[in-house]
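Q: Got a minute? One more chain.
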Amino acid sequence: MSDMYKSAVEGSLQRNLSTVLPSGNNSDIKWSYVCGTTSEPLTCKHVGQLFDEKTTEFASRTCIVSIYQDISKTFAEVRKEVDRLAAGFISLGMDKGDRLGIWGITCYEWYLVQFAAAKAGLVLVNINPAYQAAELKYCLNLVDVKGLVCSETFRTQNYYKILNAVAPEVEGSKPGSIKSANAPALEKLVMISDKEFGGAFRFQDVMKMGDSKEYMDKLESLQNKIQMDDACNIQFTSGTTGSPKGACSSHHNVVNNTRIMGQRIQFDKKPHAICLACPFYHSFGCIMGNICALTFGVKIVVPAAHFNGKSCLEAIEKEKCTAIYGSPTMFVDMLNLQRQHAYDVSSVETGIMAGASCPTELCKNVGKELNMTRFTVVYGMTETGPVTFQAFPGASTTLYVNPHVEAKVCDENGKLLPCGTPGEICTRGYSTMLGYWGDEKKTKDTIDSKSWLHSGDLGVIHENGSLEIVGRIKDMIIRGGENLFPKEIEELLHQHPKVMEASVVGIPDERMGEELCAWIRLEDNTHCTEEELKAYFKGKIAHFKIPRFIIFVDKFPLTVTGKIQKFKVIEESIKKLGR
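A: Always. Here it is, folded:
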């Protein structure tokens, strides 16, 4: 993005700030409100229409390469297989609006299911591949999953066996006619496998069912019945409560969000190829990755069934990837391997870092050492499309609101705060989810009566319209009456030459209420002491922000998407320190 265009956007944001000044004595105050402006309107296409349009426009381009499966398909080839699978789902008795779950590893078949579900008017339900029986049962029943597509196995997971622990009736059922007391809505099971399983259809057999002209005609007629505001995607998110909620997005949310996001990263300027290490079940993979790539005719490269830094770098070298998607932890691992082996990353120029707090020092190193000189950091939530703020290309962490989105920073009562004042980030607009499936109360707790979605994140909107993320409200640490934000301390730790990764938490303390504890993962072949790190802090940060406890670790507890699980860091810290 040119400096001229960036300046114009900043100017537009400043003008927006000035338009919301309240009347009265405070008219000279600039308030924490921004609204992304653009001359390009939102589109009313649904995902199926977008799919048909783009697979025609980019028919001869390579759409997806799954390296570990030895699969490479053009957009035209993918179009045929998606249509067959969508018609196959219709032949099974899946009707518009039914929920279709997908539970398993990242693979080519997963990609087909995503777009086939959209074309068949189904709501795709993304289930974490690491979930066990109790979690699976909860998800199936929370959103009344009628059909389920499963992988066979992955690592220690035997998906069919786990499903039978939830619904023991499956194995003895006729395919398509499952009746389970524990999962009463579940009727259809499709296994991604060449093997035969009791009560299940094979994936390839469902595709063959879709060859029927009858079901192809039904698929075609559906395209004018699906509406832009229909539900198309459910992602499970724990939020601040710990119990999964089914965040439901519409076609309108994801079609527009991915186009706007892709334009800012300049995917519309030339053909690109993304090394997509993010799991497809997460919005980073299936929305920011798959749908965005479709929109701009971008090739998706899947290195492995799960994140593996070595596989990613090998894929980049082999497929000449121009972009890399990943969470901060994923980039830490790739950087570490790149320093050891010096893969050819000369084709890379851009990418996206998201999913967790993105340390400035890490962003600088990624830009320099992985050749991602024009990558962007994004901010958002599963509940917001998912992207609401995004940096401009150039290894920058400075976030600006995306077009067609309103954002504000407010206090605990929802009152707008002056620029430069920390508060809760709230957003409003087309990107806001339809709600949490079947849970009106939790939806109202998150989206207020004026349509503002409350993120639970702390941020600052500056006078130039940029957003600075301070941290999560629940992560704020109160030590002796002082409000401390882990992100500030983590940023400083990442600047230390020996620190590869850091996470700061608060642990209980009888006198101070909470004390700071830092987990540190050091660069390979380095040694550092607690005293050395504490000395490093002096003169750089207030004394009460220096962690009292420092724990050196080889790895962090992570989610499947690479986020550090801070609640586990707290639990382990308490055990290690005997608190």
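A: The domain at 476-577 is CATH 3.30.300.30 (GMP Synthetase; Chain A, domain 3).
Q: Perfect, thanks.
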